[in-house]
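User: Please run a holo structure prediction.
Assistant: Happy to. Please share the sequence and the ligand.
User: Here you go; the ligand is guanosine-5'-triphosphate.
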Amino acid sequence: MTAIGLDFLLKLMELNKELLQGTVIALKANYIIVEIKYNKSLLSINNTKNPSKFIQLICTKRNRLAYKGYSISVGDIVSVEEIDWVNYRGVINSVEPRVSLLKRPSIANFTDLFIVISLHEPLFEINQLSRFLIKAEEVSTHVYVILTKLDLVNKSIADDYTFRLTKWGYKTFPISIKIGDGIDQLLDKLRLMKLSVLCGPSGVGKSSLINYLIPGKSIPVGDLSKKLKRGKHTTRHVELFSLGQESFIADTPGFNKPDFDINPHSLGKLFPEIRSQLKNKKCKFRDCLHLDEPGCIISRNWERYDTYQNFVKEMINLHQ
Ligand SMILES: Nc1nc2c(ncn2[C@@H]2O[C@H](COP(=O)(O)OP(=O)(O)OP(=O)(O)O)[C@@H](O)[C@H]2O)c(=O)[nH]1
Ligand SMILES: [Mg+2]
Ligand SMILES: [Zn+2]
């Protein structure tokens, strides 16, 4: 055996003794795909084979984790051992406590939620967007909107929507991957975040956006249905993609009508328009629904007040 070969083997043995931490980026059949960032010792053994900064390992999990009822989600930070560097396989030994968990789609440790909605094809619907926003507000205080397909509408229409959504209380990113508009500002924001999730209806361009943001990516994207101009549910599973330094973006399967089940009294907290009005003043009754109660201080003069009323009524009916 040559000196270099022995050195290589010793390093492998050393590394196998250590547990390596990585992020679960996808669940595929019975395997868990974990991405591990190169550290110095990894670079020294592996740079000739895989010049990228990240290695993906195909993992299983220790039976002990299954017995304890641990389910592993995309986004989980895990420790991997028994790494086979030839076939890039490993065994997950433990899962770090989660900072956050999104249930549908299931993603652990997300930090920011981006509701992606198209300005045209599929048609922009305030009610649908508000349903996505309510679901996002339920689980996160970091909610943003991406308006896609800017190239398909007049600039005045795009400006009008952006202005309105900003007034609702959401930082809004109008973009087009066909003409490249708005991408730099969005990418600057995404790179500051640890794990941003793209959620929204099918066909709005979530996967296309990730392909555009990450050179060389080719996630499958789908045409819209000819008649209804709706998406065809092309993405079927959650997957994380690295945007570089400690920053991931999650692609998710689109769904068209998010359901929610919320106490009608809690709905107001999920509308930034109501939250801002309640900052310095209070309604007379603590459990005010902000409908017709005497002493209610919430103004009726804002764009989504009707949407709010309808959601309250929907939740009252649901809980009857
Ligand atoms: N004109 C235009 N079309 C776009 C743009 N972005 C995406 N598309 C098109 O929109 C269609 C749907 O794109 P996808 O990326 O598959 O949409 P998705 O949101 O991932 O859909 P699901 O995976 O079904 O949830 C494709 O035909 C894209 O080419 C854009 O900025 N402008
Ligand atoms: Mg997709
Ligand atoms: Zn009130």
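The chain has nine helices and 13 strands.
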